[in-house]
Write a structure and sequence with these properties.
Blueprint lengths: L20 H5 L1 H14 L21 E9 L4 E10 L1 H7 L1 H10 L4 H17 L3 H5 L14 E4 L2 E3 L6 H5 L9
Parallel strand pairs: 2-3
Antiparallel strand pairs: 1-2, 3-4
C-alpha cells in the first residue's frame, strides 16, 4: 500500500542537521532497520509504489526517517523508517536536491524530472496543493531549544547557532 503523503514530510530543522538514528546507533543498526523497512514495504517505494527493480535512476530502495514534529517545543520524535525510490527520496529532500543542481552534481534535466515525478504522485492523489505549504511551519522556539527524541533520549542541537550551521559544523556532530 502506498502513502503519497510521505512526499510532504517536512525537512529537518537546521539546528538538527546531522542528528539521526543512523548516526546515533551506527551502521549495524541502520542496515538492519533499513533492510526491514524494505521488506515490510514489499520491496517497493512506499510513496509511489514502484518496485525497486523498476525504479528510474537506481534499482534499489533508500530509507527515509519519518518524524513527528512539535514546532512549539522545537522537538522532532523519530517514528519509523520508510522505503523510497531514489526519485521520491530526493523529492522529499528538495533543498538538498536544489544544492546538487546548483553545484552541477546533477543535471537540470534530472532535477526537473525528480520534481515532476513527485508532483505527479501528489497530483494523482489530489494533494499537490499541500506541497506548496509543507515548509510553512512557524518556529516558535530558539535555535538552542531544538532537539530530537529517539528511544526516549534527547539529542541536539547539532550547532550553537546559524553561523556554525552555515559553516558546516553540523557535519561534525556525534552523540
Amino acid at each position: 500500500m502506498t502513502d503519497p503523503y510521505i512526499l510532504l514530510h517536512p525537512n529537518i530543522p537546521k539546528p538538527l542537521h546531522g542528528i539521526a538514528p543512523r548516526v546515533i546507533m551506527g551502521k549495524e543498526w541502520w542496515d538492519t532497520h533499513r533492510r526491514q523497512a524494505y521488506a515490510d514495504a514489499g520491496y517497493q517505494c512506499e510513496a509511489c509504489g514502484v518496485p525497486k527493480q523498476e525504479a528510474k535512476y537506481h534499482q534499489w530502495l533508500e530509507a527515509h526517517e519519518v518524524y513527528d514534529y512539535d514546532y512549539k517545543r522545537g522537538r522532532i520524535t523519530f517514528k519509523k523508517l520508510v522505503a523510497l525510490c531514489h526519485s521520491c527520496h530526493n523529492f522529499i529532500h528538495s533543498g538538498r536536491l536544489e544544492m546538487l543542481r546548483q553545484s552541477g552534481e546533477i543535471s537540470q534535466d534530472k532535477y526537473e524530472d525528480i520534481i515532476d515525478h513527485g508532483m505527479m504522485i501528489l497530483a494523482w492523489n489530489d494533494i499537490v496543493d499541500e506541497w506548496e505549504t509543507r515548509h510553512d511551519h512557524p518556529a516558535y522556539c530558539e535555535w538552542h531549544e531544538w532537539h530530537m527524541m529517539f528511544e526516549g533520549k534527547r539529542f541536539g542541537p547539532s550547532t550553537f547557532c546559524y553561523e556554525e550551521w552555515e559553516a558546516g559544523e553540523w557535519k561534525n556532530w556525534r552523540p
